[in-house]
Amino acid sequence: LDTGAMYRAVTWVALQKGIGLGQVAPLVQLAESLSVLLVPAQGGDRLLVNEQDITDHLREPEVESGVSLVAKVPGVRTALVMQQRAIARSGPMVMAGRDIGTVVLPAAAVKVYLTAAVEVRARRRYQELQGHGEPEDYAQVLNETIRRDKIDSQRADSPLRPADDAVV
Fold first, then answer.
1. What is the pLDDT of residues 11-41, one digit of tens each?
2. What's the rounded mean pLDDT across residues 112-128?
3. How far apart are CA 90 and CA 125, in angstroms?
């Protein structure tokens, strides 16, 4: 489970509903009301929100630029962490996210904190966008990746960091 997709889902739905990404109370209410389901599918899992498959919208530029703003809202994090823990109880799985070992599943038997240079991650994202025919500039993708890391590392609630007992 890529938990980041859940934050992207809230971001996408908020944008569709005209909820400003700085409007804390409406974002929390939205996160609390959404039913998020990961469905195994040929070619990769699909993310359903309130029974609507929104997988193909999760990497849209406006979602990409807004997801860290939504993810830093404590009430949004609380609502999604509850769902992530419920999903984890359904059976063995690998969870990927920026706070799995520190917040979502602090008692997990295995915690791996995998790092990659920001340039490598930006290049991978740039190539992904190019593969979808989206005309992005590498420097813009790199700057957005740096900006997101800064927001995620400095947020008060669940900052991006390895768990003390994680293998880095």
1. 999 999 999 999 999 999 999 999 988 888 8
2. 90
3. 31
- Under the banding of pLDDT at 50, 70 and 90, the label for residue 65 is confident
**Structural Rg of the chain based on CA atoms:** 16
**Which CA distances in Å does 35 have to 47, 60, 80, 115, 125?**
10, 21, 10, 30, 28
From 25-34, 49-58, 96-105, 127-136, the region with the lowest mean pLDDT: 127-136
Q: Give the dihedral sign, CA 57/18/49/150.
A: positive
> How far from chain centre, in Å, is Cα 17?
19
Q: Find all residues with CB under 8 Å of 34, minimum gap 6, and list them.
A: 9, 10, 13, 49, 50
Integer Cα distance of 39 and 62 in angstroms: 24
User: H-helix or E-strand containing 36?
Assistant: strand 36-39
What are the C-alpha distances in Å from 122 to residues 27, 40, 64, 128, 132?
A: 28, 27, 12, 10, 15
Residue owning tokens 């593969």? 131
What pLDDT does residue 134 have? 75
29: three-class secondary structure by DSSP: helix
